[in-house]
Amino acid sequence: MKGLLIKDLKILAKQKKFFIFVLLLMVVMSFSMEDVSFSATYSVLIISMLTLTTISYDEMNGGMLFLLSLPANRKTYVKEKYVFAMLNLMFAAVLAFAFGYVASMVKQTDIAVADFAASVMIVLVAVGMALALAIPVDLKYGAEKGRMIVIGVLAGFLVIAVAVYKAISALFHIDVVAELTKVLARIESKALLATLLTGGPLVALLLVLYVSYLVSNRIMMKKEF
What is the pLDDT of residue 149? Predict the structure, then answer.
C-alpha cells in the first residue's frame, strides 16, 4: 500500500499549477470578504476531492491493469484509496485552520474559533460523505460516468432534503433549524456540546466511509478489466 500512496502523491505533485491557483483564490477571497471561513472551508472542498482525480489517472490508458499486475491486489488498492481520502481530509482541515488563523492575523480581525471550527467541520463531513458515495461509483462505472451519476444523486438528495424540510415546517408550523438551535443552546455543558457537534458527525462519517469501503471492495472483486 505504501507504493500506491507514493504513486498518488506523485500524481498530485504534478498538479502544482492547480494548487497555486487554489492558494491564490483563497488569498483573494480572504481579503475581499470579511468572513475568512468561506475561503478556508473552500480549500477543504477542493483538496479533498483530489482522491477522485487519482482514480481517473489510474484508469487512463489501461493503467488499472498495470497496477493490478504489481504486488498489490484489489483489496489493497481499495484500502489505499480510502486511506488516501482520509489523509486528504485531514490535510485539508489543517490547511483550513492554518490559513484562517494567518488571514485573521494579517487582517487584524478576531476570528470566532467555535463558528470557524463548525464551518470547517460541516464542510469536512459533507465532503467525506460525498467521497463515500463517489469512490464506489467511480470504481463501478468509471471516473467520467461516475461523476455524472454522483452529481445526479447529490442533486436529487438535495431536492428531497429541501422538500422534506419545507414539508415538516409547513405541517408542524415550526422552523426546524431554529428549533434545533434552541435545543443546542439549552445544553449547559460545553464539553457535551462540543462532543455532539464534532464527535457525532465524525463518528457518523467514519461509519459511512467503512460501509463505502466494504461496497468498493465487492465492486473491485467482481470487476473485469
Answer: 76
> Residue 211 above 90 pLDDT?
yes
Specify the amino acid at residue 54: T
Q: Is 56 exposed, middle or buried (0-12, 13-18, 19+ CB in 10 A)?
A: middle
Counting Cα atoms < 13 Å in the Cβ hemisphere of 53 gives 16
Q: Which three cell numbers stand for residue 11?
A: 500524481
3-state secondary structure of 33: coil
Q: Specify the residue for cell string 461516475.
A: 146
**Angle formed at CA 209 by CA 45 and CA 202, multiple of 5 degrees:** 70
Determine the average pLDDT of the residues in 126-130: 84
Torsion over CA: 207, 213, 216, 221 (sign): negative
Predicted local confidence at residue 210, as pLDDT: 92
CA 131 – CA 153 distance, rounded (Å) = 13
Helix, strand and coil percent figures for the chain, each rounded to 5: 85, 0, 15
